[in-house]
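Encode chain A's predicted structure.
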Amino acid sequence: MKKLHLGCFNKKIHGYVNVDIRDDIQPDVVDDIFTLTKFEDNSVDVIYACHVLEHLKRAEIQPALARGYRILKIGGIVRIAVPDMERIFEHYIYHKDLLAIISSLGGSQRHNYDYHYSHFDFKLLKQYLELSGFKNIQRYDRWQTEHAYVDDYSAAYMPHKDFTNGQLISLNVEAVKLK
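Encoded structure for chain A:
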């Protein structure tokens, strides 16, 4: 099976081809994860993209998802995690602490690729996925994946790392290419 981990940064996943645009982090493949020029159509079984889609401008989202759809084999799965605006706004309304959510809104802004241009709730992300041809769109439990051991933003909670009493603020969605 060929599995891609897009936008891996320093969170490499064993058994995946770790892809990032930044060669300084030494991914397995240096490529623009939104155009994926180094991968052929119908050649990938799983795509995992954790907290990267929000770094695209709205007009770029559909083409990026369509490219992901094209490189997946029939029956292939895309697994996407993005900041969950519904949960993040709930946290803000309850706590009135903008500093706690500011990175979710604009990115950490530590380098040129670390800015957020787009935001999602389940309804909007599902619409984008459907427009790209994906089916069986649903939330997934990141703790039940083969990459659950990786400490990435799919496990983002408020308060930070309070997995027992906190609120998951990552929208984790998977979909399938059926034809």
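Residues 3-83+117-154+171-176 form a domain with the Rossmann fold fold (CATH 3.40.50.150).
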